Amino acid sequence: RPELKKYVDDVKIAVKTVSGLNLCTEAAFVLPVMPYSLADEGGYKSDWLDMGGWVQLLNDIGIVTDIYTPYEIMYGSWDLSKYKVIIMSDCPVLPEKVNSVLNEYVRNGGAIIVSGRTPAKNLRNQNLTNKLFADSHEKSFIADHFVTNLANEKTPCKDIINAVKKPDKISLGQGSVFWIGEKIGKAYWGQARRERIYGNTPPVYVKPHYTQTAIVLREYIRNNLNETLTKIIDDRMVSYDSKNGSISVVPFLKSSNNYNGAKLFIINNGRGRHRSLELKFTKNLANAPCQVWTDFDRRFNMTVDEKGKLEVPDFASVAFVSFCDIFPL
Q1: What's this model's pTM, rounded to 2 decimal places?
Q2: Phi (first) and psi of residue 251, to 5 degrees
Q3: Residue 147: its pLDDT value, please?
Q4: Which residues contact 207 (CB under 8 A, 6 or more apart)?
């Protein structure tokens, strides 16, 4: 089985290529998974569809995040100050201690992006002492009634677009909190369908059938969120056009902020061959030489231009970009 052998060999090379390196994460995502509480009216403290949609959305615009639950923040000794931004999906309930940790993070110069309902109650159903965004949880959300096929819509939903394009902002100490007044993760996923596709097992969520209008809406959400994050993370190591949402770029570093020791793992999640990809790097990598390896069979010696741009050649499945040395054989 030569195809299987090549697949296994390629995986081994990929693992060897990134061994000894650290995943480069400039953002953290708070996954609001919490146990039962007095504030758990109806069995919901967050919107799971908004949460899942956010994870896919961040992947599609090339933001690699570390993921924390409130429980981990409350009982762990994590250093949140290393992140340029923390992102929270719909989360009306938050433990008091976690809320205090996030407040301290912002006051010391961090930035938080919140969408949907913002933290207002603690686990005992009492008002939080210092709300990140006062009373924003009271409004209703279009995404709760959003239908993927947009049967009578000829244009994307403007309220959702405006919410992600112009988030409300408040200053807190040296940092800022940005509130997107919609459940954009839920809107990005559209109306998820539940179907029983595995025999007698319970129904599971399956991918929606996107109409052309829904595809345009998803592109608007990606592009507008990408612009907002670029303003907050003003020196992102790498960014790229998220128009098609089919490419994931995962950066690895030898040590923190050592961009000259970076290797990038680029994955094509779409169908068919990807026709080149323009990457834009931090100014620290302008004019830097690198080697590009596509689909494990072609290598190119290239140089980032003076504006920090690099045109990755066509590839079908994966590509590597290395700034530190040649790839292992």
Answers
A1: 0.84
A2: -90, 145
A3: 58
A4: none
